[in-house]
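Hi R.,

Quick one: here's the Transcriptional regulator sequence you asked about.
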Amino acid sequence: MPALSTPLGDFLRACRARVDPDATGLVTGGNRRVAGLRREEVAVLAGVSADYYARLEQGRERSPSGQVVSAIGRALRLDADARGHLFRLAGVSPGMALDRSRDEVHPALLQLLDACPTSAAYVLSPAFTVLATNVIAAELLSPFRGTDNMVRVLFGHPDARKVFLQWPTVAGATVHALRLNAGRYPDDPQIRDLVSELLAESDEFATLWNDQTVGGLARAHKVFVHPRIGRVELTYQAFDVRDAPGQQLLVGTPAAGGASADAIALLGSLHAVDSACDR
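And here's the predicted structure, written out as tokens:
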């Protein structure tokens, strides 16, 4: 039976290619024709037969036990996000279901956004569509007005690289988090359609997506160059929204007393002036 291309097999191949053989303690020898570990070496490290691991990677074994999947995760030196993704792809940990609340922001959360007047705070859907913002976040993202999905902004908006000074880092982290969500919510049509669209339109997105790396949104330092106020540096923290699975609250805060704090205050003042002029 010919080998099948499966999400699990593709992920396993990508992960073993990233493992440094010398870091595993195996006697690997010289002259290696493949990057990372060979299938046989993963099998040894995981304590399974080489044939079984090959069948798993080739799509010919579809019902691994949780113990086997855990052992393979350790052999491949996966972090917590990647292990969770591996379990979901292997069918050991089922994907999470999304309900109608995926795109509805609770009124209490909207109040919380407005209670962060010196931070940029916004809520993202599982497909990274911006569902709600406070005033500062709305102004900070104003160069992209008309495009409400952050993945489309990063890979399709002409000003993305001007505004996001660390575009490669931000773009990579976003794609890795989107792939993690795709595993968590395999039936989400918005994620599926977004990925299909960008695979066809962006070679850079396709390269990052096909790398198979996964990782949740974590604390991050981001540098913006805003057309009205110039450089702004914020430290972002992501929070899961418990009553709307899949939604995340992102809060970006400047260092107290610095130039970025002054820039954020100016952004709020500009919003107030603009709002008054619109009345």
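The two ends are 70 Å apart (CA to CA).

Cheers,
M.
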